[in-house]
Amino acid sequence: MPEKPAARGTRIAHVGLAVRALDEILPFYRDVLGMPETPLDDADGARIAGLVAGESLVELLEPADESSPIGKFLAKRGPGIHHICFAVDDLDGTLARCRAAGIRLIDERPRIGAEGKRIAFLHPSATAGVLVELSEY
Fold it and tell me: Keywords of this protein's UniProt record, alphabetized (predicted)?
């Protein structure tokens, strides 16, 4: 039976930034700031460009259409920080603790995200107005 990996603790996995057009802002992060690109799958109605920032990522999120979650976010709030993602050792256990604490969940069950990892979102009404994504390592 394989050994369970050592616990790493909670860390920032990525920050998601809502942008109107990837081709307009990507050169700033990639060429000016020198952040290398990393391939990510598009997800949740967004085209996603991934950039490496130390041990974390920055996800640039461009809406595929106006009715997508990112499209609606941009229409209401404009470009900016959309969410922060924390990598956790035990996603199922963390979600159980959230439920026990009365934290409102957007995703009742984990699903696969842009990095191919299991993810779940917490509702901003329960996290001081911040959209929080949880991800497994």
Answer: Metal-binding
